[in-house]
Every structure is written in C-alpha cells, then in structure tokens.
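Morning run. Coffee first, then this:
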Amino acid sequence: MAKLDYLSPPDLEQVRLAYRFADQAHLGQIRNSGEPYITHPIAVAAQCAEWKLDAQALMAALLHDSLEDCGVTKIELIERFGSPVAELVDGLTKLDKLHFNTREENQAESFRKMLLAMARDVRVILIKLADRTHNMRTLSDAPREKWARIASETLDIYAPIANRLGLNQTYRELQDLAFCHLRPWRYAILSKAVAKARSRRRDLIQKVQREVETAFANSGMKVRIAGREKTLFSIYKKMDEKHLSFAQVTDIYGFRVLAPSVIDCYTALGTLHQLYKPVPGKFKDHIAIGKLNGYQSLHTTLVGPSGVNVEFQVRTEAMHIVAESGIAAHWLYKVNNPQEMTNGDRLGSKWLQSLLDIQDETRDAAEFWDHVKVDLFPDAVYVFTPKSQIMALPRGATVVDFAYAIHSNVGDRTLAARINGEQVPLRTELKNGDVIEIVTAPVSTPNPAWLGFVRTARARSKIRHHLKTLAHTESEGLGEKLLAQALRAEGIDKLPGETDENHVIWEKLLRFSGNKSRSELLTDIGMGKRIATIVAKRLLTLLTDNGEKPDAVLLTRERYSANETVSQGSVLLDGSENASVRYALCCRPVPGDGIVGYLGRGEGLIVHTDDCAVAMKLKNKDSERFIGVEWSDEPIRTFETGVLVTITNGKGVLARVAAALASAEADITHIDMEDEAAQDATDLRFVIAVRDRNHLDVALRNLRRTPSVLKAERAKITQ
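And here it is:
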C-alpha cells in the first residue's frame, strides 16, 4: 500500500476490493515455493505500482490469474469491477488448452491474443511483463525440467517485447534471469569473472568518477553522475557473437551523466571530450535521431586513465525515465512534463497499431507470430524520403520494406528505386543516411520473389495478402471456365447463373462439395482441389431433377470432338494468366508445342508439353486430372524455355554465344555452367525467352552457325 500513495482514495478502495476478491479466489492454492498463491498477484501489482500504472491496471494485475486458475467468469468480473478491468484480465488469460493440437500452436495463439489485446490497450503487456518478471525471479522454485522452456521463451519473446517498448530495466533483468536458468554454469563463471574485474578496477573507476566530477564542477554545470555495469547476458552475447575472451570485452563499466536540459547534454559531451580523448567512430547521437522504442541518449567512448576505454551515456532526467521504463514512462512522467513524453509514447503505439494491421491480413496464429518476431529485434537504420523526412526501419530492411513503410499502395505499385540518385535493385539493403526514392507504376503488382528478401512484418504480410487475393480471383475465373467446359461435355450449354430460381441448385451442389460459397467452389476447381467433371456430373443430376434436358446435338459434338482431342471447350492460353496457370519447369512449353494441362492438387493448372516424361508419368497415375488446353492465336508475351549448348572452350566463346542469341532477339534469363574445371568441350545451359516455336528455331539456327558451338538443342525431359 505504501507504493500506492499516487492514487486517489476511491481508487485505493477499488484496488483493496480487487485484492480481497483475488485473495478469496486463490484461497488454498500454494506456489512451488510453498508460499500462498496470492503472493504472486501482489508481487505483479507491486511492479505495476513502480511504473505508477492506474487503478484499473493494478486491479487487473491482482486478478490476472483468477479467470484461468479459479473458475471465475468474465461476466462476474464485469459485474464486480467493470468492463475495462475484465477486458484487461481477459487479454492476459491464456487460451483454453483444448483448442490446440500442439504446444507451438497454443503458444502462437496465446501470443496473438496477448499482442492484439496489447495493441488495443498497452497496459495488458505491462502487466504481462510484470507477471513474467516475477515468475522468472521465482523460477528456481519450479521443477528443473521447466527451466529451459520458460527461460528460452522469455529470451525469445518477452525480453524483445520489453526492449521494443523501451522497458530497459525489465529487459535487462529478464535477459539475466533467463541466462541464469538457461546456462547456469556459464552464468556462474561469468559472474565470478565480473566480480573479480570489479574489485581489480575499483580504483580506476573511482579515479574516473573523481576527475569527471571535478571537470563538471569547474565548468559550473550541475549534473548527476552514476556508474553503469553491463549485464552478464550482454557480456556473454558479445563474447559469443564476436568470439572474444572476457579480457577483450572492454566496455563492462560505464557512466551515465544526467544533465538538466538537451542543450546541457551537448555541453556536457564537450566537457567530457576535453577531459579524455574520444575513440573515433564510437560516438552516437540518439537524441537527434531517437531509437525505434523512444530511447534517447548521447553515447561516446573515451580513452580514460591507463588507456582503458570508458563508455559514457549523456541524457536528461526525462530521457532517463523513458530509457528505463519506455512506454510505462507515459504514466510515470505524465504529470510533470507531458510535452517531453510524446515521442516514446507515439513510437510505442505506432508499432502496436501495425500489429492490428498485420492481424487484419493474417488469420493464422503461427504466421502472425512469424511476422511479429521479425519486428521484435529493432536494430534500426535511419533513412530519408526525398522530402527529407526521416524513417526508422529494422537493420537489413530493403527498398521494398521502405516502400511499404510509406504506404501499402506505394509498396504494391513499386517498379524501381533510386538510392542517393542512383538506380538500384529492389533487394538492396538500406544504410544509415540513404535518401530513397520509389518509382511506382499503376500496372505494377507485388512479386512473390520479394518475400525472399523483405525484412519487415508489414511488408511481408501486405505482399502475402495481395498474392493470396490475386491467386483466388484468377483461380475462380479458371474454375468457371473448367466447370462450364465439363458441363458442355454433359450436354448443357452454359452454367446456371446466380439467380433466385437457381439458388436451390447451387445450395445443393455446395452441400455436395462441402464449400461455403459458389466463389469458393469455383476457386477450388481452378486450384485443382476439386475435379470439374465430377462436379459437372452432380450439377447435371440436379439440373435434370429440375426439368432441364441435355442438348443431344451438343452432347454428340462435344463427345466426338473430345475423342478427336480438339475439344471446343479447351482452355485457351495466351500468357495473361498469372497465379492460376503455371508452365512446367521440366519441359518449359512455348506456343507451337503440343500441350496438356494437369490440375495439380491445390496448385492450379500446370501446363506440360505432350511428350514430357513427367506428364506421361502423371497421366498413368492420375489421368482424370488432365484437361484440354490450347494456345491462343496471338500470345501476349514471351515464354521461357531451356537450351543446351555444347561448346569448345576458348576465349570469347560465351560472348559469341550470347551475341548469337541477341541477334535472334531472344532474351537470356538464366545461364548455368558445369561445376567441374573447364574441359575441351563444355555444356552451357541457357533459359531464354522466345515468342513461339519458330522464334526458338531461329535462335537455335543462329547458335549452330556460331564458331566453337558443337551442338545446340532444346533442353527438356522427354521419354
């Protein structure tokens, strides 16, 4: 109660009531340590009181396990303590275990629920972090076999979230506690080494502190100086990542200088640089450019007495509160200096808002968690828009990430990009200070290959969402064509429309296929998940029950022409199909080739040449999945195909081969050479883009006429 002096008497009374309710609910429950269970909610509420959270949050902290462990219902909580408190408790409550098959799935769903509740109300995550901190402090009482799982979960999830929200103190404590339980031996050895180093360097540290204090006293500036020690986990991580011995980690100790105002921070920095020499390249200005989580400070490393490097952080008191408590500083500092708080608060909520955006596009918990994990390690780069607006992105972010960070429409329409005025590939990683200009085009759409290099969750989820929508629309169109074609073969001229009189027929058909809507059924046919002929036969039965008769003339014509393999209803291909039709990589068909279409399960229509060995195997195994396909008279693009060229080795041969292809106006899209050392005769494999068979023949003729070419032929797997 001593910590709650900042609350009003009515609020205090509410917190008291919540405590009594929780105490009653947990009566008879014991923690692993043998203490009454209620000690845990009290400890969580005490941590929240450190952050000066409001009464509702403290009540939720006291009640946070009552829904899960004591059979108290949400309605009961709403009646007693009001809806906001019940919502907070519900956001904290893990999901009912019965719904999930695996621990991973359960965990991903729990995190999704927690993160979304936190996006709506950040107090949820603050209480959750306080809960996890107390659980970690008392983890030694838990069974040993649980240590590794809980500690690694803390390192992977909760510590990064604390860091992302700027809760530095909690972040450091969680890391150290997790390290202690995950690697007890390494922890023990390191803490001994640090204690030894501490006593060895005590004189040196005291000397630096005296000299710094004197320097500031002489300049007449009032500052507060405090020592700062690197956590054991961050020392271990540095040793592990950079392969250093303990003796090589120099920045174990440092100092924090708290100055009255921002101007004083820079003056203090000048005083320090006059006193000791700065180490070049070790100065960072996080005041002018704050970190993603709102952290602001000046960092500099100086060469102190005896040539030992000492790190200094210079910041104001307000920045210090944000640095230690991050988003929780919103409550801590609200009263005194509201205008200084906007920065950290805004950055935290901006990230939380992006969680809601990602959630809208990904309904799958594991996928959502994958997206969020990407953003939880915010080692940032700072870049500029052409109008000099600064943007922070995670390290490793590419031009495409930048485009999506501006707006999803910009990302979707990205065509090219310029960094510092120079044209660059879209996969280029951004560096600090880059000025980026995105070139867009209305016809441009996201490319599936982008998923291979984008770094931010926002970009990844937007691209996936766009591709899913696109694939569905196209597959629906293809499914409609296929079903209409199969129905013609049964003697019905066209598909029944979506009119009121046909509503019952579609309802019955959907019940037969197990789909929710006409659109979903057609998409499934287009994706190869349902076979058009079977659906058409069922539809025919329903139509004849309804009094519609097959057309005998149409039936005869379709059956006859199908046997002659020039079916009227073949799917026409002109290259405009995107996601719904794929051209097989084993034989790479081009216009002019005889072709067959295979409806892969869930893959849409795959087109093979009619003599392709892979297609032959599939035909023996799965013949009902093959459908008639034909080339359109005027394809609208070029098609890729493989060419195998055998050459005698010599200077400039590759250039001559490339020139021969260029003179035939065939584009080279890929080239592959044998791995072994060059021999007299070497095979080159090209993938080239041609208009049709005739164009390919011209390219092959050009190659055969080229000096040093022994053989040139089309590369594909035939029988």
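The two ends are 84 Å apart (CA to CA). Good start to the day.
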